[in-house]
Design brief:
Elements: E1 2-7, E2 10-13, E3 18-26, E4 32-39, E5 46-51, E6 58-60, E7 68-73, E8 78-83, E9 92-100, E10 111-112, E11 116-121
Parallel strand pairs: 2-11
Antiparallel strand pairs: 1-3, 3-8, 4-5, 4-9, 5-6, 7-8, 9-10, 9-11
Length: 122
């Protein structure tokens, strides 16, 4: 079992940057593959980024590739999402997620955080 808590959301102008954090507690963080998802008002939740449990493999949605970077610091029990060149369509609630697996690629997750709001103004 792992508990996840996101932070770092906020209001930013288009072209700006934010770094989201997801802090995990519970079972050994290093044994979890992680992901970021987002949900905009009136839309389905969508995949943003994923990272393997060791942190050496990553994948991104096409819409964020070359702008967002996911990283995992096992010693800190923390997952990060660095978001650069933000655009108004990036406005959403961002969720982190985890699954106890060494399999890669992995896009299925069992544990979810409560989310953090990101708003990008034009």
């Amino acid at each position: 079992q792992v508990q996840l808590a996101e932070s770092g959301g906020g209001l930013v102008q288009a072209g700006g940057s934010l770094r989201l954090s997801c802090t995990a507690s519970g079972r050994a963080f290093r044994t979890y593959a992680m992901g970021w998802f987002r949900q905009a008002p009136g839309k389905e939740r969508e995949f943003v980024a994923a990272i393997s449990w060791g942190g050496s493999n990553t994948d991104y949605a096409d819409s964020v590739k070359d702008r967002f970077t996911v990283s995992k610091v096992n010693a800190e029990n923390t997952l990060y999402l660095q978001m650069n060149n933000l655009k108004p369509p990036d406005t959403a609630i961002y969720y982190c997620a985890a699954r106890y697996t060494a399999q890669w690629p992995n896009y299925e997750f069992d544990y979810w955080g409560q989310g953090t709001q990101v708003t990008v103004s034009s």
